[in-house]
Give the backbone structure.
Amino acid sequence: MYLVKVTVTYKESILDPKGEAINDALQRLGYHNVQSVELGKYFELQVAKSDRPIAEQVNEMCDRLLANVNMETYHYEITEMRTQA
Amino acid sequence: MYLVKVTVTYKESILDPKGEAINDALQRLGYHNVQSVELGKYFELQVAKSDRPIAEQVNEMCDRLLANVNMETYHYEITEMRTQA
């Protein structure tokens, strides 16, 4: 079993008004040393082993469903989990 | 300067219908080895050094704004960045 953590964020050229709104709110709360905020999505998947390499499968899932590759980029981290006996 | 990556997900006791919808969609696309999907939020902050310890500040920002601590839990990762000369 694998634990897969995927983060999806906008590409640099795409405006992120929600991230800016959060930055504004943090400034109002007094966190003046915050320089920028980017908002993205986070997915945590549990995936059983299969015939296919896990990274290949995760790439494909990101391209086909989890990210809009026209506007977004993704990163992922795959950890193998020990299953309980 | 610090790069702060925050992930916010629902507590275990809270239903996550969007995560389930994504899991259903992945199943329909043929990824039958996906066992569960949890959907969360992701924040990437650039924070300048200040008098206060960065971890203390990030904790406070999560508690006050980034997460709804009644329903959500958060994790963060802080990396110190080299500033360009």
